[in-house]
Design brief:
Keywords: Hydrolase. By secondary structure, this protein is of the alpha/beta class. It has helices spanning 95-100, 105-121, 137-144, 177-191, 212-225, 237-247, 251-257, 286-292, 301-306, 314-319, 335-350, 358-364, 367-373, 405-413, 439-457, 460-463; strands at 4-17, 22-34, 37-41, 51-54, 58-62, 64-69, 124-131, 147-154, 157-160, 168-171, 198-200, 203-204, 229-233, 265-269, 296-299, 323-326, 389-393, 418-423, 426-430, 433-434. The chain has 16 helices and 20 strands. Helix 3 (137-144) links the parallel strand 7 (124-131) and strand 8. Helix 2 (105-121) runs parallel beside helix 3 and helix 2 packs antiparallel against helix 15 (439-457). The protein binds zinc ion (ZN).
Length: 476
């Protein structure tokens, strides 16, 4: 029997208006779903109900879509990467840390389990999980209850830096063929997984670490399977110049040239386009190339600003017609905070031209992502859409005063007022706590695994000292 749930007389609803093609506010209406599909959004639901939820103090909004996250890495790197990088290489690489802090399968799993609970706790219902394949990956994803585009990354080369002045490339003898085969097995397994919550992404890891042949194979696989095509690209100043030296093209021009761009393509970051004021480049058409090909970008402002880099004018991307989505490339893995940071940074870096807004960036976190995924049943609350939704406690002190709750959520309350999260109509978070993964247990395991790897690394305390020295106890 398929169950019907109804949030009765929700105080506020962020509902999709298909005629206006916009999110809109509704007051005092029902949100009902049967199984995994919404049946009623606003107004009165008169059908039979198995579970009724009092909505009088709730806001109901669509679940957020995180188009760029690395669950196996992000939480376990915490405390090591916030302030430490190579200042002679734009704080990038963190080579000494990465070379010493080596993750094994237990550490990857501990990081991922924690990350997935954290994302559920901030109202995320769909993620692009960019990881290198590891044992038990799909089991952990299933445990989380999230909707996942599984993106096993593969590449032809790894980065390294000997002098600290230059990023160097260690190319694999097979050009990345073995990694590509392994990734294809994970993609195939994800698509037939019994949870029905997984899809696959073809994800050559970075535009500068893949041979042109591997990129062509990736494009061909994406076309043949209809899967989205992802890569990190135009993501750093050194990478821009590396691509310019190799090809006499900007990274975006190179992608256009080889046929990488298109309606199913999403570029992680695209910060260093020829629009960026740090780039001295004789042409200015990268945004046009992205827009004309219908390509998307995943904008993740926090990870960049941490290293002193900023995408200067996200509004210009949106004005040019580029499909902008958002992601949580680093911690905190919190899309609501990422929306706020994106908006504030846009104003700080492009001033009166910024042309961003809470509405535009909320769209980026919902319907723009759904557009790239080719899914008109995600990122919105409308009859027939997936029951992927988030409720907020309107009586939480951080939600007052109540005039414009989306602004309150983005600019004040963030995840603190989240009450529950549902994916496919099933609860993954209740009373603010993830229901499928025990987040506290996952947190303790994360600390254990990080401490173990740090001890194995030996010199990690010298590479990244604590922010405060350990002190001495003092008596009266
Ligand atoms: Zn990334």
């Amino acid at each position: 029997m398929t169950e019907t749930t109804c949030i009765r007389a929700a105080d506020w609803i962020i509902a999709w208006d298909e005629h206006k093609e916009a999110h809109t506010y509704l007051r005092g209406g029902d949100v009902a779903w049967t199984g995994d599909r919404l049946r009623q959004v606003g107004g009165r639901f008169d059908g039979l109900v198995d579970t009724e939820v009092d909505g009088s103090r709730l806001l109901v909004m669509p679940g957020l879509i995180d188009m760029h996250c690395h669950p196996t890495q992000t939480p376990i790197f915490r405390n090591f990467v916030e302030e430490w990088g190579n200042p002679r290489l734009f704080f990038s690489g963190r080579q000494a840390f990465r070379r010493n802090f080596i993750q094994d399968d237990r550490a990857l799993a501990a990081s991922a389990r924690y990350a997935l609970a954290e994302m559920a706790a901030s109202g995320i219902t769909t993620i692009f999980d960019l990881s290198h394949a590891y044992p038990g990956w799909l089991d952990i994803l299933e445990e989380s209850g999230l909707r996942v585009w599984v993106a096993p990354m593969f590449r032809s080369a790894r980065w390294y830096a000997e002098t600290g002045q230059q990023t160097l490339y260690d190319w694999a003898d097979d050009g990345g063929a073995a990694a590509f085969s392994e990734a294809q097995m994970v993609m195939d397994a994800a698509e037939v997984h019994e949870s029905g919550l997984f899809s696959a992404v073809v994800a050559p890891a970075q535009i500068d670490t893949c041979t042109e042949a591997l990129l062509h194979d990736s494009i061909a696989l994406a076309e043949e399977t209809g899967r989205p095509l992802f890569t990190h690209g135009a993501q750093s100043y050194p990478e821009f110049h590396c691509m310019a030296q190799r090809h006499n093209m900007s990274p975006i021009e190179f992608m256009a040239e080889i046929g990488f761009l298109g309606e199913k393509t999403i570029i992680g970051h695209a910060v260093f386009t020829d629009e960026h004021p740090w780039i001295l480049w004789p042409r200015n058409h990268d945004l046009k190339l992205l827009a004309e090909t219908g390509s998307s970008i995943a904008h993740c402002p926090t990870v960049f600003i941490r290293d002193g880099t900023v995408l200067h004018h996200i509004g210009a991307y949106m004005d040019a017609g580029v499909n902008v989505t958002l992601g949580t490339d680093t911690h905190p893995q919190n899309m609501l905070e990422e929306i706020r940071v994106a908006e504030l940074l846009a104003r700080a870096s492009s001033g009166p031209k910024h042309s961003s807004s809470t509405t535009r960036l909320f769209n980026a976190a919902t319907i723009n992502a759904a557009k790239l995924l080719g899914r008109d049943d995600l990122g919105r609350l409308a009859p027939g859409a997936k029951a992927d939704l988030v409720t907020f406690n309107m009586d939480h002190p951080q939600m007052h005063p109540v005039r414009d709750p989306l602004r309150t959520i983005v600019h004040q309350a963030a995840e603190r007022a989240i009450e529950s999260v549902y994916v496919d109509g099933r609860s993954i978070l209740s009373g603010g706590q993830p229901t499928r993964i025990d987040w506290q247990v996952a947190g303790r395991e994360l600390t254990r695994q990080q401490a173990r790897l740090a001890a194995e690394a030996g010199n990690i305390e010298e590479i990244v000292p604590l922010s405060l020295e350990m002190g001495q106890p003092r008596g009266a």
